[in-house]
């Protein structure tokens, strides 16, 4: 059928409402197809796997490769096969990891879809809300910095591989966007701002649709909430658990037992202890970084859906931090986690029998 006329790349970054948007996209794949929009691959995981395969290719390897009879085509090649066979006018990819794309990956991706017009959607969020969300993400993925260690690393990163270095590699537009701007016209690189607290979540979808030229009311928004925020005590228990077993469990076992069962089935489902917010005192160093990011976006003159003022950090009330939790609070929750884990183990053994 040939190449699409347009390709839209939602490149995240992480913790900017991407999971919410991805749930909507896959729930509405059929409705989007009726609007001549293809969301390729059968699931977000499969689409992410295909993009990850492209990102692993070294410089000099083309994005579009001819079929090989003796070797199965990799996930990226199969995604391109699906796109070519669909005949869709628009193709939509949503993978947060693309915010980390190197220049040669961007070049290969654009080449993969040539001569289609490529549009990039970069989301941005108030950094005071991103910091706590990113810390919890690290805890869910086998890292175990304390709350204080994580904040200090963001304030003064100790190299690109530190927690702070990787944070800014994802959330500083001056680091994310240059590889894309080297290959895509500025008027095709859109900034999507995440609405501030108190606004309906559907507003993010409305803004996303405005970038893509879709009618937001045509789609089903009844999707489950995912990656829900944990309270301070819940986060500290998860941190200690990650520190204890993160390096000892194989990754599949960790994802199953800690990330999915403990974090989602136990910790997320209880009444949260206290809301995790960035202390107002931290805005003294964070606000200048946010102002610099907003200034960079204004200077580029990129099209914006939303309001860049949404990115100004706002102090929220919060008297406690995870480093302040009492041991009695931790112990009580550990007992609940242990009890739930034993019940789940018994259930799995019974099912296995």
Number of domains: 2
User: Which stretches are low in confidence, meaning pLDDT under 50 for 5 or more residues running?
Assistant: none
User: What kind of sheet is the major sheet?
Assistant: 6 strands, parallel
Q: How would you describe the shape?
A: globular
Number of helices: 15
> From the alpha-carbon coordinates, what is the Rg to the nearest angstrom?
21 Å
Strand share of the residues?
5-15%
Describe this structure in words.
The model has no long low-confidence stretch (mean pLDDT 93). The chain has a six-stranded parallel beta sheet. It is α/β, with parallel strands linked by helices. The protein folds into two domains: 6-127 and 163-218, Rossmann fold (3-Layer(aba) Sandwich), CATH 3.40.50; 232-274 and 321-352. It has helices at 18-27, 29-34, 44-56, 75-86, 103-112, 127-140, 147-155, 163-171, 173-176, 178-181, 202-212, 232-245, 251-267, 283-300, 327-352, and strands spanning 6-10, 37-38, 90-94, 117-124, 189-193, 304-305.
Secondary structure blueprint with pairings:
Layout: E1 6-10, H1 18-27, H2 29-34, E2 37-38, H3 44-56, H4 75-86, E3 90-94, H5 103-112, E4 117-124, H6 127-140, H7 147-155, H8 163-171, H9 173-176, H10 178-181, E5 189-193, H11 202-212, H12 232-245, H13 251-267, H14 283-300, E6 304-305, H15 327-352
Parallel strand pairs: 1-3, 1-4, 2-3, 4-5, 5-6
